[in-house]
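We modelled the chain as a single entity of 195 amino acids. Its sequence is:
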Amino acid sequence: MALGRGLFGGLAVAVVVGLTALAVGAPRPAGATTVGAPAWSASSTTAGDSGVTDTYRFTAATDATVSRVTMTVPPGTGGHPAVGTVSPGGLAGGSVSLSGTTLTYSFPPTRLAAGTRVSITVSGLTNPGAPGSYTSTITTARGSSPVDSGTTPAVTFTGDPPTGHGPGAGAATAQAGQRSPPTTGGSATSLGAPA
């Protein structure tokens, strides 16, 4: 009987530890609250494809004034990013840049209420050349101080682009809590390693 209690007690501890690890997920920037439903979609998930448009979505968790949103992207992502549609309108009119594995959308300081659904579209991207699965961390910030952050589920880039292949094929969406086909994305805090 004592052996049985020890075995089940150990199993219970392992289950609690395992569930805690799943709930914690990827690390957030110090002081940041978790954004709701972080997601991205890409017009193509073919490795090396160019002219790709990514859309990043999340729900703000904190009432705060923010001036930038960062999104991690897989190593090898390139291109000449350009801002597309941004909502809500108060965040529109900003600029986007790509440095290493981070896309940064910067705009004049704007109050963002908790519960606000945000969508940022970035065009002109080139997918990484190698197939693989990656996560993207989306972070809102005021200057260099993080406000909210969240990591999307892993998405997968597949195969080599065929000759003459353009954007649009292989489009997919990844959203927290949903299993989706592959896609592109990113944010400024941490980039998940290939899954």
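As a brief sanity check on the tokenised model: The two ends are 41 Å apart (CA to CA). The helical segments are 2-24.
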